[in-house]
């Protein structure tokens, strides 16, 4: 395996297939292939963005521009990420907002160290598991008051700001407040998800008043305003985190939830705290890939990579049944452990280091048949929408941040005149006695949202993430494989056609008995699909479930940042 040591952007030298170029206008014989792009992989949507002083990549261009404005005014990457996240809560409420949770990995240039932040909230103290059982429920409902847990994002902002930030919160929230008052044009994909979420949660109080224009969700290009959110942001900017967790906002949330038959209270809000945690890593062919430990699912990506490292992935080729089969079977194994072990570590002893060890990967690999799809696997002895953003600054700081309401616009619980929806993350608890992820009061649920980072020789290399429920660890692994094994650059790695396996056992208690199904984006050949079916895989097309990718890579040789944002979302990478 040839690995790059001096040129970071591709992880290894990438050679264009030999073509004799006679002029800028290429002429091929009838039997030749023609490509839309003259350089790089034909599936790439654009070139990487390259800049010296700073880079931001978010899922909505206005948020990217807000981040760049903060960087240009002297703020650092952490300041810019907070400002961008606040902006996304306004312009992309279909995926995030201050009613949800937050996780982050920060590379601090001063201490030359990675820091992890778990800003996820806990279940209401007054809600007992017996309530669900008495109602005859085997699963926690998707929407309404019961799946609501404490929103941790705002506390996450202040934790990040107090430890690493340089600018006051008033300045960071000012752009979002202005846009919320004066309005912004809604982008295409977000307009689509607005309409979808109206069908899901439009019947709940506050949706029409907060998120529609004359009773209809905003269309592409329409100017949308959220004065209630502007008012909430102003209170947070001036009153700090306590304005949200111990002031009027918390009181409104508690009173509203009680009116709706919910359990989240003022006391639950006031008791919330986030935690600094240690990121964990696995080395993949010389690169250290970093994730956060449970209650998130990040280590599933490391488990997948550890198994894949035992194969000649490059030799298999990207569009081959052998590669897709191997990836899917490795994913099935990792997700069985995910279903059994990933939960709040304050309630269980999670065997994280064993799960991400190379020795364990070898044991698990022995369960993979090279020719037959497994219908059921055992653990060793999802739908969701999210935003992911990453920012890097001229000082060398980088942040990988992910934030979500869970199911698009969350639970549908919209506290009176606050301008945001509360998350439904509590849906992910299991109502099964003795399960690691069993519901309990004051417990953090299993979480799907995961930021990621890559270092090489203890130096920062890449900050990246892929939003989208249970899609995320699968795509984290595929981004790494695309760059290291298949030699793609940062943009190509995200644009490449993706593999998605669905139907594994879940932390909510579902058990896979039929092998689940494989979905392949366009770009994989019919031959590959046919061979997979012969192996026993079920192939099923899905639409829009492959996640959304942003990434920043640091090229130490040239002292520049590379940025990438893909075509599946409305996002943008930009630098200066």
From TrEMBL:
A molecular function GO annotation: leukotriene C4 gamma-glutamyl transferase activity
EC number: 2.3.2.2, 3.4.19.13
Membrane-traversing stretches: none
Post-translational modification: Cleaved by autocatalysis into a large and a small subunit.
Pathway linked to the protein: Sulfur metabolism; glutathione metabolism
Catalytic function, reaction form: an N-terminal (5-L-glutamyl)-[peptide] + an alpha-amino acid = 5-L-glutamyl amino acid + an N-terminal L-alpha-aminoacyl-[peptide]; glutathione + H2O = L-cysteinylglycine + L-glutamate; an S-substituted glutathione + H2O = an S-substituted L-cysteinylglycine + L-glutamate
One Pfam assignment: G_glu_transpept
Record keywords: Acyltransferase, Glutathione biosynthesis, Hydrolase, Transferase, Zymogen
Protein family according to the UniProt entry: Belongs to the gamma-glutamyltransferase family.
Subunit structure, as described in the record: This enzyme consists of two polypeptide chains, which are synthesized in precursor form from a single polypeptide.
NCBIfam families, per database record: g_glut_trans
Name of the featured protein: Glutathione hydrolase proenzyme
Name of the gene: ggt
């Amino acid at each position: 395996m040839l690995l790059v040591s001096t040129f970071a952007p591709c992880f290894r030298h990438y050679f264009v297939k030999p073509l004799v170029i006679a002029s800028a206008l290429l002429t091929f014989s009838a039997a030749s292939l023609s490509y839309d792009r003259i350089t790089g992989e034909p599936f790439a949507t654009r070139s990487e963005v390259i800049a010296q002083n700073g880079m931001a990549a978010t899922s909505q261009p206005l948020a990217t521009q807000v981040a760049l404005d903060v960087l240009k005014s002297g703020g650092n990457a952490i300041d810019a990420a907070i400002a961008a996240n606040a902006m996304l809560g306004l312009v992309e409420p279909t995926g995030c907002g201050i009613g949800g949770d937050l996780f982050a990995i920060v590379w601090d240039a001063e201490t030359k160290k990675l820091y992890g932040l778990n800003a996820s909230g806990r279940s209401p103290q007054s809600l007992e598991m017996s309530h669900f059982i008495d109602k005859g429920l085997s699963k926690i409902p998707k929407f309404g008051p019961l799946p609501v847990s404490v929103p941790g994002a705002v506390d996450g902002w202040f934790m990040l700001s107090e430890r690493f930030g340089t600018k006051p919160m008033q300045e960071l929230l000012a752009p979002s407040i202005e846009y919320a008052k004066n309005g912004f044009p809604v982008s295409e994909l977000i307009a689509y998800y607005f309409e979808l979420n109206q069908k899901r949660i439009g019947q709940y109080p506050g949706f029409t008043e907060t998120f529609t224009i004359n009773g209809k969700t905003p269309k592409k290009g329409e100017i949308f305003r959220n004065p209630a959110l502007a008012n909430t942001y102003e209170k947070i900017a001036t009153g700090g985190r306590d304005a949200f967790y111990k002031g009027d906002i918390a009181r409104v949330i508690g009173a509203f939830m009680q009116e709706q038959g919910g359990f989240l209270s003022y006391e639950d809000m006031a008791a919330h705290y986030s935690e600094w945690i240690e990121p964990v890593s696995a080395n993949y062919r010389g690169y250290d890939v970093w994730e956060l430990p449970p209650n998130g699912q990040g280590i599933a990506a490391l488990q997948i990579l550890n198994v894949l490292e035992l194969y000649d992935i490059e030799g298999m080729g990207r569009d081959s049944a052998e590669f897709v089969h191997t990836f899917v079977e490795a994913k099935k194994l990792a997700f069985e452990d995910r279903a059994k072990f990933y939960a709040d570590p304050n309630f269980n002893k999670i065997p994280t280091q064993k799960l991400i060890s190379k020795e364990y990967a070898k044991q698990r690999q022995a369960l993979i048949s090279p020719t037959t799809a497994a219908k059921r696997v055992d653990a060793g002895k999802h739908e969701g929408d999210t935003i992911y953003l990453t920012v890097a600054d001229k000082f060398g700081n980088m942040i990988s941040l992910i934030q979500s309401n869970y199911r698009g616009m969350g639970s549908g619980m919209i506290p009176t005149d606050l301008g945001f929806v509360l998350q439904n993350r509590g849906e992910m608890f299991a109502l099964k006695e003795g399960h690691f992820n069993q519901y309990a009061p004051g417990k953090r649920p299993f979480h799907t949202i995961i930021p990621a980072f890559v270092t090489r020789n203890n130096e920062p290399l890449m900050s990246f993430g892929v939003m989208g429920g249970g899609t995320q660890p699968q795509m984290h692994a595929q981004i790494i494989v695309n760059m290291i094994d298949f030699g793609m650059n940062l943009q190509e790695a995200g644009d490449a056609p993706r593999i998605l396996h669905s139907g594994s056992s879940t932390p909510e208690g579902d058990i896979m008995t039929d092998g689940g199904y494989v979905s392949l984006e366009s770009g994989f050949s019919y031959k590959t699909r046919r061979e997979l079916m012969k192996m026993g895989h079920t192939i099923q097309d899905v639409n829009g479930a492959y996640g959304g990718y942003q990434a920043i890579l640091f090229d130490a040789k040239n002292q520049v940042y590379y940025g990438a944002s893909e075509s599946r979302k409305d996002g943008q990478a930009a630098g200066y």
